[in-house]
Amino acid sequence: MRRSRRRAGVASPAARRLPQAGVLVTLVSTAGYGLQIDAVRGELTLLAMTAPVVLIGFGLGMVSGPLADMSLAGVPHEDAGSASGLFNTVMHLGIALGTALTALVFFTTTDGSPDAGLNREAFLTVLWWVAGLLALMWALMFHLPRHAEDRTD
What we know:
Helices cover 73% and strands 4% of the residues. By secondary structure, the chain is mainly alpha-helical.
C-alpha cells in the first residue's frame, strides 16, 4: 500500500490568502466604522453600527481558524496537546494585552473626562490605532512560512 506524503507545516496559497483577506476585511470595516462615527457624530444608531461590527467579527473569524491550522500543522502528533495549549495561551495573552493597550490609548486620550465628544474622539483614536496594527498584521502575513521539511505519515 502506498503511503501518502505531505509537507508538514506547509500553507497552501489558498490557505495563506484566507487570513490575509480576513485581515483586509477587518481593516476596511474598522476604517469604515471610524469614518462613519466621524461623519455622523452623535446620531449614530445601533442599526448603523451593526454592519461594520459584524464585518469586523467575520474578518477576524477568517483569520483565527486558518492561523491555528497553519501554526500547528508541523507539530508532531505526540506533541499536539502541548502545542495546542501553548497556542491557546498565546492567543489569550495577545487578546488581554491588546485589550489593555486599547484601554490605555482610550483613557490616555480622554484623561478620565465624561465629555461625550472627547470620548468619541478617543474611540476614533483607538480605531485608527487598531487599523494601523491590522495593516502591520496584514504585511507580516506575507512572511508566514511557505515550506517545511517533508515527512511521511
